[in-house]
């Protein structure tokens, strides 16, 4: 149910942030933050104040309170229908309202009401968030920059303030900042780094598992605060934290029972030799008409579809033997190369390459949601981590549904996205990659295209934790109920937090410990760990584990149609303070108990069409319809026409104007190309007067395969590489390497031709293509793996003979010898 609750104003300025004080408690991978911000209206007129703050999608806000010019205010969470009724009762009929969308939660904010001249406001925001590990093994905490609240002089104008994204001038960000952090961990803490100067770091226990740190005095809040927490040893085993239930809540409820948080953090520095990281690799390739345009602004550069096809070829060649794969082409509809994923062999690789090379950008508009649903509906192949690679350009109208679909299946796959060409779908691709634990790459320079693709593949080939199972050993009378399902796969370098509610009544109070056995597989090996935890822990007034558990539980219930589950979601939301789609915050004046004219909302920071773009969108549709008429009637479309200037004046957005110009140029070229075809035909002009005839002439030009581009020698070598990583000793390979029949004569005795050819290719790459090592690194590693398995003791002899034959001196270390 959409609710409209917020008043609209126009053209906000900034209320100066006078100071900010932050108190952080960090326990392993969980942080609880209390931020206190002070503001003052230094203007000469009353101001209506709007506060907003960008938050990570995993943050659980659970409290917001403050003092507005001496009046105590507090956020209270209610069912949404109650909020609507209270707003209607207390606000005048002429009050305009703001729409709140529970799906968009990138910004937390509230309209605080009127602040008189000289008036001061103190705001306190409390939230809990999971922490991500950094690439160097530390745990990373980030405090985002808090924008100054927007304010406007009270007046008759009526607009939505959140249609304007506040920019923060540097001179208004110089606010005093103080931050203190209490650190705790299962492991001994080594040290802390920050982008601000630290002071007062000290251990608070002898075993160094707890510490206190704060920022040095004199800092101003001009950039985000980053803390990197390092430990004496790596997180190499699961960690369990227990938190007692919140007093006053019903036993048996999530907030009333103890909660356990289990941290699983797979981190492996050196993969075990001889074991391949096989998986299921799915390639989703945009073949819409939009992909026929050039990758760069230069119309003579390579087309987007050709760039995407080359990346798929690189990735397909780099797959390990024994993996599964499938390729999907999509536009307004979609199809797959195979009904289900097939084993990666020489035969399936060659057949797929031929089909990839034949793909054309002719499938209409790009619609990603349906092929995504088809992919996720395929059964999961046990023991093979699913990796999705998406290649596209355009933004989609249903981007929220697309992102939600990826997030729904985030525990069973990883998503890598590639935006190709100018003005790609930045928000959608970034959000999909973030939701799918992958990364997003944007391809504008064709020279960097292969290396970017293979960087993602290297990450996809990292060892993963799979086949995860938990066995609980708790005192009699207690049992563990998982708040969310166990993830099917956890990727190296990522931390997965699993929440469990400890239910029941303990029969023997003398038993104070429990344990959980975690079993999983990685790189073909099975690991078993027993983690013991205490059930008698100290009270925590903030209850951060319960907040995270509540958020995870509410995420699981999101979209449910069950009346019982919806009621359970409401009860959990009201008791935990974490909002869901059925609840909302409303701020009340706590002194007289009356409603204050304040409301809290969540809003997404990004919209594909901004407030002004919406007006331009209709103009674009009108323009495209106009150009369609031009094409069908055969009237030459001139960029000097009056109608073009009319539509140009309507489109104030520069990017949109460039896009329209690109489309118009495409249609102009299409028309002239059609004229050339007609002029060169044997039939008379009169027989080609209909729209269908012009469309036919268009297809003669544009439905042909892309003209062959000048492939790099590395790409040509990769195309010849076998699925197992070897190269065949044949004429086309010798031609690329610049060799002749003498190559056969120089082959050492008792060395197979493919081993000789593979050694020569690796040597040639180190001599002539060292600058393209990023491109060929994975493929060389694949080739070296094949050589070690098949060349055996002859490999060193073969390398020495190759060095002599090619006149080079490549070290044996390159071949792992």
From TrEMBL:
Domain VWFA as annotated: residue spans: 280-461
Domain named VIT: residues: 1-129
Cited InterPro entries: VIT, VWF_A, vWFA_dom_sf
SUPFAM superfamilies for the chain: vWA-like
PANTHER family: VON WILLEBRAND FACTOR A DOMAIN-CONTAINING PROTEIN 5A (PTHR45737:SF6)
Protein's name in the database: von Willebrand factor A domain containing 5A
Chain's gene name: LOC100567089
């Amino acid at each position: 149910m959409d609710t409209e609750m917020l008043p609209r104003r126009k053209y906000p300025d900034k209320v100066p942030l006078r100071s900010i004080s932050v108190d952080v408690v960090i326990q392993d991978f969980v942080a609880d933050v209390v931020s206190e911000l002070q503001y003052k209206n230094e203007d000469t007129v009353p101001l209506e104040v709007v506060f907003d703050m960008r938050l990570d999608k995993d943050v659980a806000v659970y409290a917001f309170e403050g003092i507005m010019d001496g009046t105590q205010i507090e956020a209270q969470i209610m069912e949404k229908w109650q909020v609507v009724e209270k707003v209607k009762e207390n606000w005048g009929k002429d009050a305009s309202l703001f729409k709140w969308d529970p799906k968009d939660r990138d910004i937390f904010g509230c309209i605080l009401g009127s602040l008189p001249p000289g008036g001061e406001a103190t705001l306190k925001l409390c939230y809990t968030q999971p922490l991500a590990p950094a690439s160097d093994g530390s745990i990373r905490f980030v405090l985002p920059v808090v924008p100054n609240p927007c304010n406007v002089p009270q007046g008759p104008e009526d607009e939505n303030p959140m249609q304007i994204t506040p920019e923060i001038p540097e001179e208004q960000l110089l606010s005093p900042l103080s931050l203190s952090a209490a650190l705790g961990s299962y492991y001994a803490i080594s040290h802390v780094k920050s982008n601000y100067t630290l002071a007062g770091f000290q251990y608070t226990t002898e075993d160094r598992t707890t510490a206190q740190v704060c920022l040095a005095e004199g800092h101003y809040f001009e950039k985000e605060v980053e803390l990197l927490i390092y430990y004496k040893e790596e997180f190499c085993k699961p960690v369990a934290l227990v938190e007692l239930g919140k007093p006053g809540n019903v036993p048996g409820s999530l907030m009333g029972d103890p909660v356990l948080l289990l941290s699983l953090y797979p981190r492996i520095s050196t993969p075990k030799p001889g074991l391949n990281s096989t998986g299921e690799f799915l390639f989703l390739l945009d073949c819409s008409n939009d992909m026929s345009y050039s990758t760069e602004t230069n119309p003579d550069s390579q087309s987007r579809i050709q760039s995407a096809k080359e990346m798929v070829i690189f990735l397909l060649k780099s797959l390990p033997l024994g993996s599964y794969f499938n390729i999907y082409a999509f536009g307004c509809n979609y199809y797959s190369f195979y009904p289900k994923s097939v084993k990666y062999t020489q035969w399936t690789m060659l057949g797929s390459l031929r089909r990839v090379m034949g793909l054309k950008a002719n499938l209409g508009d790009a619609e990603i949601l349906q092929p995504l649903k088809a992919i996720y509906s395929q059964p999961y192949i046990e023991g093979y981590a699913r990796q999705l690679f998406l290649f596209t350009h355009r933004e989609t109208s249903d981007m929220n549904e697309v992102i939600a679909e990826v997030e729904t299946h985030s525990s069973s796959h990883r998503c890598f996205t590639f935006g190709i060409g100018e003005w790609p779908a930045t928000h959608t691709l970034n959000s999909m990659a973030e939701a799918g634990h992958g990364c997003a790459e944007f391809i504008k320079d064709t020279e960097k295209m292969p290396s970017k693709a293979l960087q993602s593949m290297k990450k996809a080939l990292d060892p993963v934790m799979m086949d995860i199972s938990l066995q609980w050993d708790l005192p009699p009378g207690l049992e563990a109920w998982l708040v969310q399902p166990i993830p099917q796969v956890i990727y190296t370098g990522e931390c997965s937090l699993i929440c469990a509610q400890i239910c029941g009544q303990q029969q023997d109070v003398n038993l104070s410990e429990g344990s959980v056995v975690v079993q999983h597989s990685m790189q073909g090996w099975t690991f078993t760990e027993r983690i013991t935890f205490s059930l008698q822990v100290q009270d925590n007034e903030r209850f951060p584990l319960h907040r995270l558990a509540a958020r995870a539980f509410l995420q699981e219930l999101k979209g449910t149609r069950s009346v019982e589950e919806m009621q359970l979601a409401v009860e959990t939301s009201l008791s935990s303070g974490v909002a869901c789609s059925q609840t909302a915050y409303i701020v009340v004046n706590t002194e007289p108990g009356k409603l204050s004219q304040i409301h809290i909302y969540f809003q997404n920071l990004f919209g594909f069409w901004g407030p002004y773009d919406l007006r331009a969108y209709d103009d674009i549709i009108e323009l495209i319809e106009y150009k369609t008429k031009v094409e069908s009637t055969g009237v030459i479309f001139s960029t000097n026409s009056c109608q073009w200037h009319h539509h140009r004046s309507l489109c104030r957005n520069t990017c949109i104007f460039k896009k329209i110009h690109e489309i118009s140029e495409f249609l102009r070229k299409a028309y002239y190309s059609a004229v050339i075809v007609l002029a060169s035909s044997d039939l008379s002009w009169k027989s080609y007067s209909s729209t269908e005839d012009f469309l036919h002439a268009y297809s003669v030009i544009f439905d042909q395969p892309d003209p062959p581009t000048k492939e790099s020698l590395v790409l040509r070598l990769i195309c010849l590489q076998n699925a197992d990583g070897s190269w065949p000793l044949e004429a086309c390979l010798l031609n690329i390497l610049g060799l002749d029949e003498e190559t056969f004569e120089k082959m050492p005795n008792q060395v197979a031709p493919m081993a000789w050819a593979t050694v020569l290719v690796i040597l040639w790459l180190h001599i002539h293509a060292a600058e393209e090592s990023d491109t060929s690194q994975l493929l060389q590693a694949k080739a070296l793996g094949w050589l070690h398995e098949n060349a055996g003791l002859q490999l060193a002899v073969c390398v020495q003979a190759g060095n002599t034959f090619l006149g080079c001196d490549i070290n044996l270390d390159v071949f792992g010898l």
